[in-house]
Structures are given as structure tokens and as C-alpha cells.
Amino acid sequence: LATDYKVNGKKSTDKIERNIRHLGRFLAGMRAADITSGKIQSFILGRQSEKAMNATINRELAALKRMFHLGARTTPPKVLAIPYIPKLQENNARQGYFEHAQFQALKAALPPYMRPVVTMAYYTGMRKGEILGLQWSQVNLLEGHITLRPQETKNKEARTVYMEGELLEAVCFQKALRDRIYPKCSWVFFGVTGEPIVDFKSAWVSACKEVKLEGKLFHDFRR
Question: Which pairs with CB-CB distance under 8 Å and at least 24 residues apart come from 3-7?
Fold first, then answer.
């Protein structure tokens, strides 16, 4: 994983090395086949006993998931099976934002082309510019992740965003819709004409008013 970061010129090597150190304290010396879901649960409980926030543990779990995917892609493969790696609820990072019921209500009130956009925002916390500028070349549906390049993030650091559940389903639907109607469209999120979405203020304000969430801004739209 550390080599992958260096080879691809990612700047956040200090963060990934910190994640590796924490993982190593619980999993060092194990073969990939020994790192079962039970071992991962033990790692989570151990980090929680050290008062680590769920958001921090999730970054470490994302690093572990990336390790498994890299190992599975080597020749010959170092990994034959990838265990289930959960994502913890990040209550500490989402207080004051949207509740799940509010997310579902607002999503239903928005035009269909906007629903996958807010789903991405809700589950990842990505910024408006990162979401609307996302292209299919950055999406790996097989491994379930998105790569954000340094020039596309606020802090100018590349990062990987993992997808699962409702979010992964929404992006797969976008891919199928794009392939069927707008095969030349390079954008993940597009309007009714297949062009990238530039402005959705009117649709957002109308939907918020309909579900009585007036005054809510897009950057609040996180779980």
C-alpha cells in the first residue's frame, strides 16, 4: 500500500503510514487468509478501547481494504479472498447534518437526475465540485471505489473514496443509464440532455421547501 502511494505520487503518505502502523499493531505477522471478519472486528474493538473515533477507524479500514484489493491484483495473486470490511457510523463527524429520513425525503423531492448526486454527497461527504466534476475514468465499479486526484480536492491531496450499498447501486445505475442513452458522456452525473450538471440551485430550493427543510445548504447534506 505504501509503495502504491509513492508510485502514484500521492502526497498523503504520512497518513497512510500512520494507518498502517495502527493496523500492524493488531494484525502484524498474519497471512492475508488469517485476517478474517472476526479479526477485523477485534481490531475495531481494540481501536475503540483506545478511544479512537469511528471516522479514524474507518480510514484505517479503508486502507486495509485497499491492501486486499492490491494483493488480489498482483501476478500471481497474493490474495484469493477479500473479507467483509465494515464501515462504522461516523456520528462524531456528522452531528448537525441530515438525518436519514430527511435524506430520503429530499431525494424523493428532487428531479431524478439529482438523486444520485445527493446520494453521493450523503454517503461520502464529498464537496459539490468534486461530485459534479467526477468522470468515469475515476470510478472503479469492480473494486467499488473512486479516485480523487490532487487537483480536484480542496487540500490538493489525492484520496480514495469507497462505495457500497445504496451508493454503489446508484453509481451502477448511472453507468447503465449513460451506456444506454449517452455513451459518449464522460461525466458520472449528468442532466436530462447528457451534459454535465452546472447549477441546480432552483431544484434544490424547491425540494427543500417541499419537505420543509428551508435554509439547508448542499454542503450540509451529509449523514
Answer: 4/66, 4/70
